[in-house]
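User: For my dataset I need records formatted as: sequence, then structure tokens, nothing else. Please produce one.
Assistant:
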Amino acid sequence: MKVGFVSLGCSKNLVDTEMAIGLFKSNNYEIVNNPKEAEIIVINTCGFIESAKQEAINTILEMAEYKKGKCKYLIAMGCMVQRYKDDLQKALPEVDLWIKYDSYDTFWNQIENFMEEKEHTENTSKNNEMNFLDRVISTGKNYAYLRIAEGCSNKCTYCAIPYIRGPFVSRKIEDILKEAQKLANEGYSELILIAQDTTKYGIDIYGEPKLAELLNKLCEIDKIKWIRFLYAYPETITDELIKVVKENDKICKYFDIPIQHISNSVLKRMNRKSNGESIRKLIQKLRKEIPEVVIRTTVMVGFPGETKEDFEELYEFIKWAKFDKMGAFTYSKEDGTPAEKLKEQVHHNTKKSRYNKIMELQQEISRENLKRFIGKELEVLVEAMTFDGKYYVARSYMDVPDIDGFVYIKADEKSLINKYVKCKIVDVKDYDLIGIM
């Protein structure tokens, strides 16, 4: 049978989708990209915040429309299913099979049992486990995500991740290196390390942080050109880690540091482990040690009890920090989290106003930061062309796929796609750079 997939949410969820695709493929199902052709559609849901849950429900309803055509079965899996399976089963009878995150160890047994019941097929499976080594990479030819840990033990008061995906569990170094070597052999030149908190990698199984050691070992793999890691919590960025990033050419000089806020009173209510002073010192240290460093962060506005003064402190801090990249989101009240019960919930309009104000500020900061690259030469990875064929679309060391901007290159050369080239930056447009060759 033909199977189509829809993956929602974060890159960590995408890795689960890729492993599920690998399972179906290894058991002789045909994978298709067009849902019109699919006889089975699998949706990997996200349940992180309210907007993600709504997107998941809308996607399920949208995919259910294909049951009027070739689609016979709709399967939903993932984080939202983990949180709300019983309610969803009642509300969405269009879905034929629900698979919770904590039952992924029996993922294929559930698929088999379902197909035996519906299609009266015999069990002929060759592969029964979701496996990192058998996953089908869905991100193109150049980069792949390398998930080094699962779950989270930080227990930030606003976040549902620990209740959905459990405590932080690291993978063994040797298993990660084996997967990385396989990806390199298959032609993936950029590895993006992901976990809910990459800087805590190894503490649970080795008794101490091992991200720096892991990065050093990944740099020894010949065919890998770029390595980057995301979600580095400020309190666990060590001097050793900074040194490893500074001294290895393969590691992109890019730190993704989700600070969430700068006000100590807000950080305390969030149960964050860092404080305003330590965050400021870390930014100064990174820029001193690695002058070309690009720092990305995320901040939250409208957390319960956030006063006008707290927000102004955050606003002035962003002015001072001049982050190269910054994402923001408004606080979302999540079921079962401690912050849900906090008093002094901030009004929706206030949250939206604060969000707009800091994003307008960040747009100005981003434009000014990018201007420093005008006249300089950058190495970029070319991945596509614009629809009109006038520009190549590329990324530099400071651009994470699907998150950051692009480098648009005006070039007459042919066949640059999937190649690393050097270009001269001549202009800036919002969050993007314009280059020539």
